[in-house]
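Q: Sequence in, structure out?
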Amino acid sequence: MKKILVVFAALGLAVSALAQDFNEAVETFNKAAQAETKAEALSLFKQAFTQFVACGEEAEAQEKVEELKGIIPAYSVAVAKESIAAKDYDAAIVALEAAAADCAEFGAEDKAAEVNDLFGFTYKASAKKALAAKDAGAAFANLKKAVEYLPEDGEAQFLLGRLLLSSGKIDEAKAAFEVASANGKDADVKKQLFNYYYNNGQKKQQAKQFAAAVEDYAAALEVNPEPEKAAIFFKMGISYGALGKKAEQNEALKKYCALDEAAAANDDILLTIAQNAVALKDAETAKEFYGKLATSKNEAYAKEAKNYLK
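A: Exactly. Output:
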């Protein structure tokens, strides 16, 4: 009889201890819910989770365990968002890594997807901050990470392509630009590539590398056949002229005249086209452009034009 009483007494103590543990866990949970900061709340919710798990199979404890499996990842993500909002991107990355671990532990797939997007956003934001500080190395590293998380982020791919282009990695840049173009950045990509080839063409032209200059100008026009910079046709015309390619020079200069009113009224350009046309036996073009020169204030040009038109 005494042994039975001892057993019941032991069970009573166990039940009492279990109730005490559960009450402590509830108290921790309530403190978490009333915490002033999300970071403090997260820490307390994790503590409460451990306490409820320790309560064993008790139904109310298990209910709280399941509830906390949703609460902890949500708060973990919220902590990371606070760092992002404060533009403390280094702290945000650390917080996101912790959030990713919490999502994996508690099977929070929806929050895991959000964490993935936040990683991409944060790395991109950090890269833009580095670009503003002219730290190309940090910007490049962060953009590489950004597109790992968000491969279809047009802005991140465009910024990455721009850095690759500036370092001479044209094929890699084009690959990034291709993705950027497909995701809302087509106009920016065209402008970037056009300027790249256009500027390269000018450098080669100044170095008297006329054939190479023409190749770059042609590449620029392949990217954007209707450029904002009409002067590319003038520069292309100069290079063709230096190469002795009169037909190509005329084609470029006529396009320049069609796009630029000042060029269409420039007697030197009109004369070049007219003289090339004569050499090419293109009577129609020669007549058209000498006709424009017949009333030129330049007496020599006007005289040449009138002589041809007789």
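Residues 1-129 form one domain.
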